[in-house]
Structure formats: structure tokens, C-alpha cells
Design a protein that fits this description.
- This protein is of the alpha/beta class.
- About 35% of the residues lie in helices and about 20% in strands.
- The protein has one domain: Rossmann fold (3-Layer(aba) Sandwich), CATH 3.40.50.880.
- The strands form three sheets. A seven-stranded mixed β-sheet has the order 5-2-1-6-7-11-10, with helices on both faces.
- The protein is globular.
């Protein structure tokens, strides 16, 4: 029997709520363990970019990262700014990639990857509005882009495709297809 995969999804004040909630929901439908980690001073309740309040499962703790198979950085200007300023988040990104673990990011989230210095030599995407902030690597205009163990996506509208691609990486294409069919998702 294979061990259940575990994913840490970061959230902070100003994170893009659709990217957070859709990713968490779709991963959980696949039976993947998800821990929603609050980054910043207020981690009991986060106010997202459109004023939706989300209660993280707990506070961001870099010492706990060894138990996760993937790290997800959603977009949202305020949330990504908090993550860009947190050295432990950037260090965790580098450590995940060095260990061959998955790092996945949506929308403005790749700006955090850039600040962590991991985009050089990588092909990736982001929200087109963030493109000018991402001088390293090769930016492409596609909904979801995978380069090795790095997964990136463009915006809230691509969150379902992003989460399903993450399931493919962590589990299998068959499980991703089963989850997509259950949601009546059509690519």
C-alpha cells in the first residue's frame, strides 16, 4: 500500500481565495492530505483578496516541512508579498526543489519563486500581469506549465487544471481523471 501524499498550501492576508480553496478542495477529493498553513502575524483567520475569511489549519512552521510532499504558493498580491518577505518560505521552496519535492504556484505566486531564486533555467507561467517581475527562466503563455518538479499556473480560472495537474504529479493521471469526472470538469 502506498503512503498518503501530503501537501502544504500557504495562505496569507491578501491571498487569492479561489486559488486556495479550489486547490485544497480538489486535492482532498483525490485523498491527498492538505494542511492550510497561515503565513504572517494573524494566522487564526486570514482575509483574502476579495474579503473572504479563511481559517488556516495552523500557522506556517518551516520545521514541519519534512512531512510534506509538495508546497503550494497561491497568488493574490497581498499574500504573495507576505510570502516574498518571509525568508523561511523562500528557504523552504529551495529545499523542496533540491530534495526533488514538488513546488507549485499560481497567478502572482511565481514572484515568490523568483524571490527564492529558483526560476533560472526553468520554463514556467504566471498571471500575465506578473510577467515583468519575472526576468529569470522562460515564461510561457499557457494555463499550466510543468518543468520537472515545478508546476505553475496563470490565474483563478486555471485553478482546477492546476490542481488536477498536481494530482497527476503526486498520484497518477488516472486518479486526476477520476476526480475530474466526479466534478464534471471538462478541460
Amino acid at each position: 500500500m502506498t503512503q498518503k501524499k501530503n501537501v502544504c498550501v500557504l495562505v496569507a492576508d491578501g491571498s487569492e481565495e479561489m486559488e486556495v480553496v479550489i486547490t485544497v478542495d480538489v486535492l482532498r477529493r483525490a485523498g491527498i492530505g492538505v494542511f492550510l498553513a497561515g503565513v504572517g502575524e494573524e494566522t487564526r483567520m486570514v482575509t483574502t483578496s476579495r474579503g473572504v475569511r479563511i481559517a488556516p489549519d495552523g500557522a506556517w512552521d518551516p520545521a514541519e516541512m519534512v512531512r510534506f510532499d509538495a508546497l503550494v504558493i497561491p497568488g493574490g498580491i497581498g499574500g504573495t508579498q507576505a510570502m516574498r518577505e518571509d525568508e523561511s518560505v523562500k528557504q523552504a521552496i529551495r529545499e523542496f526543489l533540491q530534495a526533488g519535492k514538488v513546488v507549485a504556484s499560481l497567478c502572482a505566486g511565481p514572484t515568490v519563486l523568483h524571490e527564492a531564486g529558483v526560476l533560472a533555467g526553468k520554463t514556467y507561467t504566471s498571471h500575465p500581469g506578473s510577467r515583468d517581475e519575472l526576468p529569470a527562466g522562460i515564461w510561457v503563455d499557457k494555463a499550466v506549465v510543468r518543468d520537472g518538479n515545478l508546476l505553475t499556473s496563470q490565474a483563478p480560472g486555471t485553478a482546477f487544471a492546476f490542481a488536477l495537474a498536481l494530482i497527476e504529479m503526486l498520484e497518477s493521471p488516472e486518479i486526476a481523471q477520476k476526480v475530474a469526472a466526479g466534478m464534471l470538469y471538462q478541460a
